[in-house]
Each structure stands twice: as C-alpha cells, then as structure tokens.
From TrEMBL:
Record-stated family: Belongs to the aldo/keto reductase family.
Domain of life, source organism: Bacteria
Active site: residue positions: Y55
UniProt keyword Oxidoreductase present: yes
UniProt organism field: Levilactobacillus namurensis DSM 19117
Binding-site residues, substrate: H117
Recorded GO MF terms: oxidoreductase activity, acting on the CH-OH group of donors, NAD or NADP as acceptor
Keyword Nuclease (UniProt): no
A Pfam family of this chain: Aldo_ket_red
Protein name: Aldo-keto reductase
Length: 304
C-alpha cells in the first residue's frame, strides 16, 4: 500500500480556513519558469502556490494556474493561492489599489491568503487595516504577515482587530525562531517557512547528510520531513519538475525523536535577510536595498 501523499494533508488556520501543509514557492523565478513550474506542480498534486508582487512573476503564476487547472480538470477552488503586499505599496489606500492590480496579474477573482511581505516602519499597521477590509469584503479568504519578529507581531496584535492566520518566516535548521514560535503558538498563528532548505548551508550540514544516508533520502527530503513533523507549513521553491516531485515524496518515512532533536540542535539563529538590509529600516546605509520589483525579460509577454 502506497503511503498517502503529504500533498493531501492540510492544517486549519485560526479563522477556520484549511491550508495545505506543503506547497510551491516562486521567489527568484521568471514568469516563464514559474508558469511551467506551477503547472507541473498542480499536475503532480500540489495545491498551495506562493508568490508576491516583489517577485515580478504574479502573471506567470496566474498563467501556470490556468494551465495546471486545464491539464487536470480541477477548479480554482481546489487551489490555495498566496501573494503578498509589496513594500513600496504599503499604506491603507495604496494597499487596496495594489490588491486590485495583483488580481489582474494573477487573473483571479480572489486570493486565499494575502500577506504583508515585510513590516515596513510606520506603515504596517495601516497596511494591515487594508487587509482587514479586503477580508471583510470577501476578496481574500485569510490574511497574515511575513517576516514579523516578536516586537512587531505583538504591536500588530495590540493595535488591530483581526489576528493574522500565518507568519511566513525564513525558517530552516540554522534559523529556527524559537522565541517567536512560542508567541505564535500562544496566539494561534501558524508558522510558514520560506527558504526552508537554507541553501547549501543547511543541506551540507553533516547531521543532515548522515540522516539522508540513514533514511535513503535526499538532504532536502530530510529537512522537509522535519518541517512536516514540526507542524510547519513549507513552500520550497524549485522550477525543475523532477525536484518539485522529489520535494513532495516525504510521506513514506518518519524521523525518530532522536533525529528530530539532532536537527533542532543545529539552530544558530542565522538569518540570511533581515530589517537592516532594507532602506525603509536603515535609510542611511548606502548598501541597504530600496524597494524594487524583480524584472524579467519575459514580463511584457505575460502582461499582454
């Protein structure tokens, strides 16, 4: 008997909406590559697709959704689509305008989950109130945040009416956000992992390599199974059909408690990207990133 795919497993968010536990991320992928990856993922059983305006590929994601649905005979309601408010669009009115443009890019009538991409100083409270408006109007099924530390998440909870359903964070064996996870458990907010594999730094850890050998799995599958057992929603990014399929094949083994603890012991609180890297938080640093949307050579083709 074949093990049930983890792609069929869902968690219930704090507003009662259910969300797949494993999905496809799309950061740093062109519209063409994303179109192909999303379509392939849907055909392989993925139902959670994650994008953002900042990625510059919402149009490609929309095309991939259409192609995937056409190939499988599924309906829009069978998918769970997440996108995010671009940093440069934050604020109440500007967020509402930006959401209308996002729907046009995705060619959807609603999104399942809309997130604040980063907590832009002085703007994220007003941005959240715009998300609350979209939620009340039924244009989004759930609203959440991304990259909110304990201080900013607490401030948001104190000043607004709707509790986020999700906080999407950089999370991998080298950055496990222990204190933040405790706050989120207390407030009923689900952790979702971006950069779950942590690149080579996590995949090449001797512990991960040894467990891959022990369980006859890839290092990526070991990390994704660990996430699954830690009850974390995970969105590994890939544009390769074989890798996308491989990432989902983690339902036929279980890490022992000892092995889970060994991965937990790898935590170094090591983030790859954080507030000081952005001009909205660190305006005097000439190296700090300004707000920008990724540009791809195929953008015009997908926006026709």
């Amino acid at each position: 008997m074949m093990p049930e795919s983890v792609l069929n497993q869902r968690i219930t968010l704090n507003n009662g909406v259910t969300m797949p536990r494993l999905g496809l991320g799309s950061w740093k992928a062109s519209n063409t590559a994303t179109d192909q990856a999303v379509s392939a993922a849907i055909q392989q059983g993925y139902r959670l697709i994650d994008t953002a305006k900042q990625y510059g590929n919402e149009a490609g994601v929309g095309a991939g959704i259409r192609n995937g649905l056409l190939a499988t005979g599924l309906n829009r309601k069978d998918l769970f689509v997440t996108t995010k408010v671009y940093n440069g669009d934050q604020g109440y009115d500007s967020t509402l305008r930006a959401f209308d443009q996002t729907l046009k890019q995705l060619q959807l009538h609603y999104v399942d989950l809309y997130l604040i991409h980063w907590p832009v100083d002085g703007k994220y409270i007003d941005t959240w109130r715009a998300l609350e408006e979209l939620y009340r109007n039924g244009q989004v099924r759930a609203i959440g945040v991304s990259n909110f530390d304990q201080e900013r998440l607490t401030n948001l909870l104190d000043k607004t009416a709707v509790t986020p359903v999700v906080n999407q964070m950089e999370f991998n064996p080298l950055n496990q956000e222990r204190g933040l996870r405790q706050l989120m458990r207390l407030t009923g907010i689900q952790l979702e992992a971006w950069s779950p594999l942590g690149g080579g730094a996590s995949l090449n850890q001797p512990v991960i390599q040894e467990l891959a050998h022990k369980y006859h799995k890839t290092p990526a599958q070991i990390i994704l199974r660990w996430d699954y057992q830690e009850n974390i929603v995970t969105i590994p990014k890939s544009v390769h059909s074989g890798r996308i399929l491989e990432n989902s094949q983690i339902g036929d083994f279980t890490l022992s408690e000892h092995d889970v603890a060994a991965i937990q012991a790898l935590d170094q609180e090591k983030r790859g990207l954080w507030y000081e890297d952005f001009a909205w938080h660190n305006p005097t640093d000439p190296k700090a990133m300004k707000d920008f949307v990724s540009s791809w050579d195929d953008t015009a083709k997908y926006q026709k």
